[in-house]
Design brief:
This protein has helices at about 15-20, 35-40, 65, 70-80, 95-105, 115-120, 130-140, 145-150, 155-160, 165-170, 205-225, 255-265, 300-315, and strands spanning about 5, 50, 55-60, 90, 190-200, 225-235, 240-250, 275-285, 285, 325, 335-340, 365-375, 375-380, 385-395, 405-410, 415-420, 430-435. With about 425 residues, it is of the alpha+beta class. It has a six-stranded antiparallel sheet with strand order 13-12-17-16-15-14, with no helix packed on it. Strands 5, 6, 7, 8 and 9 form a five-stranded antiparallel sheet that branches. Helix 12 packs parallel to helix 13. The chain is elongated and about 110 Å long. The protein starts with a strand and ends with a strand. About 30% of the residues are buried.
Length: about 425
């Protein structure tokens, strides 16, 4: 086993939090709570343990996923810097040793038991946070570091300092097991934080919201879930709350995508009163669908990038200004897509195509542009070279928009790819109907 301890020296756990560590939830609390950090830590491992003002993550099983210990530690550091959270960290082979080393502020990286035991010798006894009577007794012996204690016979230590202290030493050294109570990730996510000072400008809230988004993203990883909608609540005090619901075109789990969309909403928001607190609630989390690996990098990223763009446009311009497209079963290119909000009636549905169609351009020319023709060849700033086709599309006889066309893929002198069709019916002619990227 390998443990990463994160100690927050400026954040002391409250008595209530310390008394309920095993059952900790993510209910809104003052500041950014240790349980909220535990949700964020779910990004790296599902085995998280809470300690007073500290987290312990069992990361041995996560090293391969993140490319090794240095890479994982770099990601943890970058996240904490982005959230403006200062911690003392340490890695050790036992959970108690990792906690003591983190409290000591040594930034020790001990990947095995031998290096862990060696590093513990330099830990000051104040890092153990012993009960005051025991701490005074040890100080009276003239002992200052853990190495001084370990140099003494264990039998005499037990007689003078008590058996519980010896048990802790044995656990830290890996001599006996030290099972830990795992953090129970909540079924539903709702987390909040109080702002250090009133905020008058909505865009400034993004900095504080970044912490909540990171906690949500970690929670979603543990739950293997994604959300279609989240809700930010801005508390102005005296019961005044601004609700900021955000809907996504596709289920989302990545913190960066959530943050980009929220930024667009906050940039356009004018606060009615200074903000005092902020909370985030996940609405309708759903299990993430498995996705097959693709042969070429970016094939799956394009779909996600397009969804991200749509969400940001909706956040910036409003849902009425941006409309999505949905596929419609019609062979005619100009009717093969429609407003995503439109409902297709049974009378307008057409049986699905059994074989996938040839390549289609995303940019259609509306209406199709008539082209010159010389000796039967289409012209556009010179002759066009036909490289594929013909593909016959014949449809629409039932709705009064009968189409009968022979489609070709062509290249012009500038090397651009065009989508042409020739109408075989009189008077005929060539037409430009689309551009390939």
């Amino acid at each position: 086993m390998l443990w990463l301890a994160l100690h927050c020296p400026t954040q002391a756990a409250s008595d209530d939090e310390a008394a309920s560590l095993p059952e900790a939830s993510v209910a809104p609390t003052h500041g950014f709570s240790t349980p909220a950090l535990a949700c964020w830590a779910g990004r790296f491992t599902s085995h998280v343990n809470l300690a007073p003002a500290a987290l312990r993550l069992e990361i041995a099983a996560s090293l391969r996923l993140f490319g090794g210990l240095p890479a994982l530690l770099d990601l943890v550091r970058d996240d904490l810097v982005a959230m403006d959270i200062a911690v003392q960290r340490a890695v050790a082979a036992t959970p108690l040793a990792a906690l003591w080393l983190a409290r000591a502020g040594t930034d020790s990286i001990c990947p095995d038991l031998a290096t862990t035991r060696a590093a513990l010798a330099a830990v000051p006894l104040t890092a153990l946070q012993l009960a005051p009577p025991l701490a005074r007794r040890i100080e009276g012996f003239g002992l200052r570091r853990l190495g001084d204690v370990l140099a003494l016979p264990r039998a005499s230590l037990g007689a003078r300092l008590g058996k519980p202290f010896l048990v802790d030493l044995a656990r830290a050294l890996g001599e006996i097991p030290d099972p830990q109570v795992g953090f129970v990730f909540p079924e539903h996510f709702e987390q909040g934080l109080e702002l250090p000072a009133p905020v008058d400008a909505a865009p400034i809230l993004l900095f504080a919201a970044r912490r909540l988004i990171a906690a949500l993203a970690g929670w979603l990883v543990v739950r293997n879930a994604a959300v279609r909608e989240i809700k930010f609540l801005i508390d102005h005090g005296h019961g005044a709350i601004t609700s900021l619901p955000i809907a996504f075109s596709t289920p989302v789990h990545a913190a960066a995508r959530i943050e980009r969309v929220l930024k667009e909403r906050l940039d356009a928001l004018s606060l009615s009163a200074p903000a005092l607190a902020l909370s985030l609630r996940a609405e309708g989390a759903q299990t993430r669908e498995g996705r097959s690996h693709v042969l070429f990098e970016g094939a799956g990223q394009r779909h996600e990038a397009l969804a991200d763009l749509m969400d940001r446009l909706v956040a910036r311009l409003g849902s009425q200004a941006v409309q999505g497209l949905a596929c419609h079963a019609d062979h005619r290119p100009e009717l093969a897509s429609r407003d995503g909000s439109a409902k297709v009636t049974p009378q307008t549905e057409v049986s699905s195509i059994l074989a996938p169609p040839p390549p289609r351009p995303l940019w259609l020319v509306d209406p199709p542009e008539a082209l010159r023709e010389i000796r039967g060849r289409p012209q556009r700033a010179g002759p066009l070279a036909l490289v594929a086709g013909p593909e016959r599309i014949e449809s629409g006889w039932w709705d009064g928009f009968d189409a009968r066309r022979d489609y070709f893929i062509a290249i012009d002198k500038a090397g651009r790819w065009l989508w042409l069709f020739r109408d075989p019916r009189p008077p005929g002619g060539w037409f430009l109907h689309g551009w390939f990227a």
